[in-house]
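User: two proteins, same treatment. go.

Assistant:
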Amino acid sequence: MSLALNKILLAGSNSTTNTAGAYWQNANITVNTAGANANIVIPAGTYYANTPANCTVLGNLGGGSNVTIVAANSATLLVSDGVNMYANTTTNGTLVLVTVNGGQAASGTFTS
């Protein structure tokens, strides 16, 4: 996952997620709960999030208790610190996340 949303797009690159030159990278979170509430920490990053019918995103805003940040059946831009954002579901489900594909690490800089 990239730490910023900028990316160089390659002409003729494959638009399929998680491939070389692709803009999007899937970062889905599967929550297996066997029918009980479970909070799964969302890794640090910036995501477009799509919550299914049985899934919400909770956040701890420093008050000691979690509050609903994203309701079920919603979509939003989500910024997670990797500690205080959780995927929550009452049944087994998947929080659908996409982020900008981080690609390969740069080995140097370009000069003109």
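Protein 2:
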Amino acid sequence: MIDGPGHPIHPLWRSYRRWWGLLGVSSALCVGFAIVLKGSAADLVLANPRAWPPLLAFLGLVLAAVRILDFRCPGCRKQFHSRWQGFLPRPNPLSDRCLNCGFPKWKDPPSR
């Protein structure tokens, strides 16, 4: 994964990396808001203007997690981080290869 003038990263992997960045930022914000608000459920009422930043951070966390788990492999077009066995997914969001076809992470996708 070299991102620079010598070898630019493919736009597919750049998007993937951005989703991981959003996951990290929104996770940190959720933890920060939980500490500041002391986990009070009364502060999470939608009519309260203080509730919007934590709510948006949580929505960003959920959106990024869903996008990362639904990331499609450039090789086989199946979910990169999940392998379905029957009706149950077997996710591994930290895998360095596609769980279905073994396509390595950060490798340039084949031209179609």
